[in-house]
Amino acid sequence: ADIMRKLMDMGQMLTFNQTMNVDAAVMIAEENGIKIDISTEKAGEELLDSVVQTEEDLQLESRPPVVTIMGHVDHGKTSLLDAIRQTKVAEGEAGGITQHIGAYTVAVRGKQVTFLDTPGHEAFTAMRGRGAKITDIVILVVAADDGVMPQTIEAINHAKAASVSMIVAINKIDKPGANIDRVKNALSEHGLISESWGGDTIMVEVSAKEKTGLDTLLEMILLQAEVLELKADPHRLAKGVVVEAKLERGRGPVATVLVQSGTLRVGDVFVVGTFSGKVRALITHTGAKVQEAGPSIPVEVAGLPGVPSAGDVFQVVKDERVAREIAEDRARKQRTADLSGSAKVTLDDLFAKIKEGSVKELALVIKSDVQGSAEALTAGVEKLATDAVKLRVIHSGVGGITESDVLLAAASNAIVVGFNVRPEPKASALAEQQGVDIRLYTIIYDAMAEIKAAMEGLLEPTLKERMLGRAEVRQVFTVSKAGVIAGSYVVDGTITRAAVGVRVLRDNVVVYEGKLGSLRRFKDDVREVQQGYECGISVENFNDIKAGDIIEAYAIDKIAAKL
Ligand code: GDP
Prior knowledge:
The chain is of the alpha+beta class. Helix 3 packs antiparallel against helix 9, helix 11 packs parallel to helix 14 and helix 12 (403-412) runs parallel beside helix 13. The two termini are 31 Å apart.
């Protein structure tokens, strides 16, 4: 009880069967005149470090490139993946019946290329956020009839943030409306200049539908791979990344592992996430059972005791006992939420991190209601750079803050700045979970002043806004006395009269910010309306409400600055 009281004084609420940290143990012992020696036995990650081979004596050999396809929705990512798979896998391998294991390999003139099967930059950035860098080359698909679209730009910025080289596939050139020069022109505005125009970005014209240009695209991938000099040592204990994992009926948990170095073999002992086990079988994307898989080769692994997460590192170790210990240690840590302490940068702790030297650059993702303000804000904040910190806008765009924005921020340790826009509910939840700081402003000067103050450690106790409730406008009608009433349905939280303010959102862009006029249920004025109920809302001095708008009510809390 004495020790627990002491711990409580130190701000640590521990019960009998919890573990106290070393510092606390030493301090309590010293106060009681006891000297303790801390002897650490290697456990968990340290143990893993000690059994994994060092980088000495690497016998590097060239390995196939790993490719991810990105681009705007409907520009043909899936079609392109399928077209390459159909024409190339069938040619090169027996059977030709392909299995979807999350990645596949094709052979081109005796050389191999690996494609990751989940197109899109969200998956790519989510993996990167977990520390897994698996893609060597990004194929940016742009439809020739549609041109550069918002997600094309997002994909470019996600790939740039990850420093991955890009090859552009101009798709749908079979279509009558195809305009290749227009695509090249638009891409050049984003720093991708075609080789044929004297730049250094390889651009290939393809049609996933007619299966034309695929050979050239593959040749270019191989060429780029040669330039990148991709190498790995196949002669060591295998290490890879989980690209997909699932529970399969009759087979139990299976995971597709992309081997990154070493060679994975049947019978190998491994640890992945919080699981350890022994490789029972290795299956390729053609359904063939194989005995081993080398660098850049994806294989489905059977023999796992549970389903790991995509992005988990898969590490082969020599000793089964060691593998088990490492997995158990991780599981223990996860239980006590040791792993949750995310070290993402926020404006509140920016100054401390600058001083400590752990932050030398503040990365920002900027979203705004119109292009002009995004540009003004980008130009403004980039000028705030000092000798100690650079400011870098890694992505800016128009529209509400999406999950993709938060993923990019999480993976790049960036903060998200919204100007006259709001996060989508899913994006807010993800930001909370990932510890990503989202800052919302309605005045450009405020945004710059706050970032500047944060850089100088002068960030005042901030007034932080708290969302009270959101109502969706179902129908709008006019009442002679009261003006425009929005017949609404509360989708989240509670709309209250006490709210400091309300704002009207259309597609997550703020169209009006002001005060609540009236709040009614049937004919009665009410104080509040909870989630799941209908109500009539009017917004003071604002009559331009439309069905489909979101009315958001908020309060403002004063948050004391952290010491
Ligand atoms: P994703 O959303 O980027 O994965 O796009 P999809 O692969 O689903 O393709 C979207 C649509 O474009 C589908 O209807 C495809 O059939 C069509 N499409 C894809 N590639 C081509 C192409 O090269 N030419 C034509 N004409 N249509 C294509």
